[in-house]
């Protein structure tokens, strides 16, 4: 994740934290600035995070096998961690990210690794799947929402409802609401987010962190996440968890 050679943009002046539903929310931290590069840099990950990412990767591979998926579509892909799942399964991959610099770096990696026939990328918003769904491969894709991406989105319900319409299997990987996890997240975000505020109660039973340039990330309790999935018409096919978070495989009811 640091291997992309992406450099963090200079810090703009600190602005008041934006509400997660505000329009500038995504534009600020992820779309254009260096926020994506900072938060996805391995150098900023507390040690505990690596086990969580391993859990997520193995859950994704198991889902591909169990649900007979014919492609992997990774949202918030940054440098394409789930490309390894597609490589291991021998199926097409598409990485989608709102950050054009990250997508350009992933495209270069795909070229360097001779995977042009298997892997594609696009710049797109996970919440606007109707805009890019025609470009993704597979009739039964595994759509991966990695590394607490769901907790970054202003409107998780809208995002999940849109993704459900794609007809595949969705893998959702989120941080839990446990105090220990909140402490690990605080240490993580303190390394890459300026103006980090004390965590507040989130919308889904977890803790929400806010910072400069509209940074906003919330975690999920299991009951609140299950309720959200039900409300979106999604049923749980499998789930696995470690002390930091959980990965769930879901499909349309
Ligand atoms: C996977 S998330 C990681 C979140 C972080 N670990 C946390 O705890 O909140 C970061 C990646 O998602 C991308 N991203 C953020 N919002 C997005 C959106 N709405 N659509 C697509 N990609 C998005 C960013 O550009 C970045 O590459």
TrEMBL record:
<dbReference type="GO" id="GO:0008168">
    <property type="term" value="F:methyltransferase activity"/>
</dbReference>
<dbReference type="Pfam" id="PF13489">
    <property type="entry name" value="Methyltransf_23"/>
</dbReference>
<dbReference type="InterPro" id="IPR029063">
    <property type="entry name" value="SAM-dependent_MTases_sf"/>
</dbReference>
<keyword id="KW-0489">Methyltransferase</keyword>
<keyword id="KW-0808">Transferase</keyword>
<dbReference type="GO" id="GO:0032259">
    <property type="term" value="P:methylation"/>
</dbReference>
<protein>
    <submittedName>
        <fullName>Methyltransferase domain-containing protein</fullName>
    </submittedName>
</protein>
């Amino acid at each position: 994740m640091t291997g992309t050679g992406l450099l963090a943009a200079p810090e703009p002046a600190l602005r008041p934290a934006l509400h997660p539903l505000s329009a500038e929310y995504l534009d600020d931290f992820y779309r254009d600035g260096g926020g994506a590069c900072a938060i996805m840099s391995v150098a900023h990950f507390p040690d505990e995070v690596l086990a969580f990412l391993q859990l997520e990767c193995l859950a994704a591979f198991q889902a591909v096998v169990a649900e007979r998926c014919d492609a992997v579509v990774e949202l918030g892909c940054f440098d394409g961690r789930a490309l390894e799942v597609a490589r291991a399964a021998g199926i097409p991959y598409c990485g989608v990210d709102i950050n054009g610099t990250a997508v350009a770096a992933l495209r270069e990696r795909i070229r360097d690794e001779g995977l042009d026939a298997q892997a594609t990328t696009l710049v797109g918003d996970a919440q606007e799947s109707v805009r890019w769904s025609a470009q993704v491969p597979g009739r039964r894709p595994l759509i991966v929402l990695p590394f607490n991406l769901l907790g970054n989105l202003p409107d998780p319900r809208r995002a999940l409802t849109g993704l459900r319409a794609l007809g595949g299997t969705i893998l959702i990987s989120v941080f839990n609401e446990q105090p220990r996890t909140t402490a690990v997240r605080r240490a993580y975000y303190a390394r890459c987010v300026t103006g980090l505020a004390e965590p507040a109660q989130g919308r889904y039973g977890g803790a929400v962190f806010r910072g400069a340039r509209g940074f906003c990330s919330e975690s999920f309790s299991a009951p609140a996440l299950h309720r959200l999935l039900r409300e979106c018409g999604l049923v749980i096919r499998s789930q696995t968890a470690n002390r930091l978070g959980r990965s769930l495989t879901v499909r349309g009811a």
